[in-house]
Amino acid sequence: MSGDHGHPVAVDAALSVLARHPALKLVLVGDEPTLLRALAERKAAPYERLAVQHASEVVEMHEQPSKALRGKRDSSMRVAINLVKEGRAQAAVSAGNTGALMAMARFVLKTLPGIDRPAIISAIPSIYGHTHMLDLGANAECNAEQLFQFAVMGAALATAVHGIASPKVGLLNIGEEEIKGNETIKQAAALLQGSSIDYIGFVEGDGIFLDDVDVVVCDGFVGNVALKTGEGVAKMIRRFMQEEFTRNWLHRLAAVAAYPALSGLGKRIDPRRYNGASFLGLQGTVIKSHGSADAVAFANAIEVAITEVEKDVPARISTLLQASLASRPQPPQAAAQG
């Protein structure tokens, strides 16, 4: 019910994904009369694979997460997460307030054993196809152990979803040299070097898009800035290209000739293809769609949820975490006194 464009996006996306997945069942959570009207307008009355669950409240995009958590227990967001907790759904997808969604998901579903904090992860386009980066905004400050946990979660996702047997994991840093970075980054590197994770070292900002790396790990403050910077650069390039190809008749003629290449480029960097950020580390699957997503982008977020349910990502994380902790060298025991 929230997001920048409200329920029409979710309804259109739901119908399109249902048409592609004959075994899929979806529950639209929100104001029941509103949702039923939207379905009637599209001549798609609820049937056996599409249900409507009423929720009387909506978390606004500007609301404080703590206020939403305490005061809106019948919001569409909270009800959707409750369905996962109760086993009536296997995943929840929302385009709403990120902070509120994380707070509610963590409160209701709890974190996996051994995970301190959930993290937000998403695919990022790169010259090798894509990489995954986390955290993208859930945790502004992290210690070395939490960065290690993020690396494990990212590696588990890459293996489960993309079939990468041994994902290459890097730590985002201000340089590739071992002497670069703050103490937290250096300590996280030491933990990863002593684990079963295929740790390849530090990755600089441009390496997110240019290096052969499957998972890039950072705290949520840095990750969110890097993500928004990349999105801004992509939009700027698109804008510059449009301006140049419409500058005069000669440029417009060149644009016609270059259309196939430009169309292919547009599809490769289309942010809608990468919509759907996962909240990793929870005892359940929660996917965050971009607030400004259209129906195509929201449908992709639903597709991400389907894949993670099919691959049982939370279980994969738990298994890899235990194996990684077991492979880390244990600190020396203090000598007995007396």
Sequence-ordered SSE layout with sheet pairings:
Blueprint (H helix, E strand, L loop, with lengths): L6 H14 L5 E5 L1 H10 L8 E5 L10 H7 L4 H10 L5 E4 L3 H12 L9 E8 L2 E6 L9 H19 L5 E5 L10 H11 L4 E6 L3 H4 L4 E3 L2 H26 L3 H20 L8 E4 L4 E4 L6 H17 L1 H15 L11
Parallel strand pairs: 1-2, 3-10, 5-8, 6-7, 6-8
Antiparallel strand pairs: 4-5, 4-9, 9-10
Write structural notes for this entry.
The protein has 338 residues and is of the alpha/beta class. The protein has 2 domains: 1-109, Rossmann fold, CATH 3.40.50; 116-273 and 313-327, 3-Layer(aba) Sandwich (Isopropylmalate Dehydrogenase). 49% of the residues lie in helices and 15% in strands. It has 12 helices and 10 strands. It has helices spanning 7-20, 32-41, 65-71, 76-85, 98-109, 144-162, 183-193, 207-210, 220-245, 249-268, 295-311, 313-327, and strands spanning 26-30, 50-54, 91-94, 119-126, 129-134, 168-172, 198-203, 215-217, 277-280, 285-288. The longest helix is centred in the last third of the chain and has 26 residues, at 220-245. The protein is globular and about 60 Å long. The N and C termini lie far apart (66 Å). Residues 331-338 have low confidence and may be disordered.
